[in-house]
Amino acid sequence: MQFFTRTNLIAITIIIISLLGLSFVFPGCGSSSGGLPTTTNIVTTTNTSSTSTSSSSSTSTTSTSPTTSTTTTPTTSSSTTTTTSTTTTTQIPFEVEQLLETAAGGTSINFDSSDNIIIAYNDEDVSEIKLLTRLGASSVTSETITTEGSSITKDSLVLSNSKNYLAYIGSASKLFYADNGSGSWGTELVAETNSFSQPSLAIDYDGKAHISYYDNTAQYLKYATNRSGSWVKQTAETEQNSGTYNSIAINSTSPGGDNFDIFIVEHDGGAGWEEGLRISLKNYEDLNWTNQVIGTNGDPCAAAIDSQGSCHASFNASGGGIGYVSNRSGSWEAPEHPDEDTSPSVISTDIAIDSGGNIHMVYNNSNTMQIKYLKGVVINGTTTEWEGPSIIGSYEDMPTGVSIITDSNDIPHISFFVYSTPRTIYYATPE
Fold first, then answer.
1. Is 254 exposed, middle or buried (0-12, 13-18, 19+ CB in 10 A)?
2. What CATH number is attached to the domain comprising 315?
């Protein structure tokens, strides 16, 4: 006689397992916990306070939790090297400080010779270029660099060899250059014959300036350098409407050497505004520029160089959302879209590469009024693991004018302003 059927055995087994405090999942059955992504809602706390020339700042903190969702995308190119990218939704919490209420029209962040955070901005109320210095978590100062300045861009301010450099548009839309090598800011006129905009600055190993900018009158992308001792200017792109947004990067790594490359990533309006992202490239010793399409739209765009001399760019992609492209494989790869949200138009972005070759991108979401951050961790030089996007802050008015740098510990530092009343400059860094 059979006292125990298969059903009875299963029931008895379950009772024994329960008494022992164990858990069991039958094959083919799901579990209510473990192995599933979990997401914690973003909590943002914002304190507002007015800031004057020397004042206390308030801090708003955004906290996020990591998730386990992962996607992998291969990227092919004509080079023998194949790169791949992986995206995880890991979020990095940021601490955000409100630094200054002012009529800012743009920000550019960097360090001074004492490693203090400095932010150049144009005060649109008085048409001046000013410099904000963050002396600590509770104190900022502001000084005027020039009383005839109308605009700067995200990469107008550079630190090199304990000296700060600045490119900006001044009175009558002329192009100017400034540095504080003498202990105070001195300015030079670079170009004045036409109306100019969108200056972008890079400094080579020998402390010489390289500036890309847009000629509003001729509607061409232009380039200027003082490497020879005086300002020499060239047309870098003859495609009209190309360069309305642009960003310059160079891979100068040795003293006195002229054998380095100049990259200018640019938005090409094109005939009939057939938009595209282009690269204008030349070796410094060459007379001519080469130009090619490397992505879509590019309005706006940003460029950065890694330690291997490769160029990386962030840009507003066609159809919306943030795009990324590089030539680290030896040729320009297919653009990536590391943020799955492709609905918003990105109207401000910047990019930085740290000492380990990792990618840091900041950009705004014009639909949700957010500032977002993505980190691309590069593994073995061929695989990028994207972390994020992380939400730095959400605002009632449009946040824009983003700028990013990384320090010697590869930590990102970000500036931006919000079109509030009054406009407000913010500073953010990971907690």
1. exposed
2. 2.130.10.10
In a domain, 338, yes or no: yes
Single-letter code of the amino acid located at 31: S
d(CA 307, CA 155): 18
- The amino acid that residue 59 corresponds to is T
Contacts of 388 (CB under 8 A, 6+ apart): 89, 90, 91, 92, 338, 339, 372, 373, 374, 375
Q: Look-up: residue for tokens 């740098």?
A: 405
Range of the domain at 177: 104-353
**Rounded Cα distance, 71 and 75, in Å:** 13
Residue 44 included in any domain? no
Q: Which helix (H) or strand (E) holds 155?
A: none
The model's pTM is 0.81
The pLDDT score that the predictor gives to residue 169 is 97
pLDDT tens for residues 59-98? 343 444 444 344 444 444 434 455 667 777 788 999 999 9
Q: Look at residue 89 and tell me if it is in a domain.
A: no
DSSP letters, 45-107, are E-------SSB--EEEEEE------EEEEEE--SSS--EEEEEE-----EEEEEEEES-EEEE
Residue 85 corresponds to which amino acid?
S
Write the DSSP string, 199-210: EEEEE-TTS-EE
Q: Residue 24 domain-assigned?
A: no
Q: How many domains does the chain fold into?
A: 1
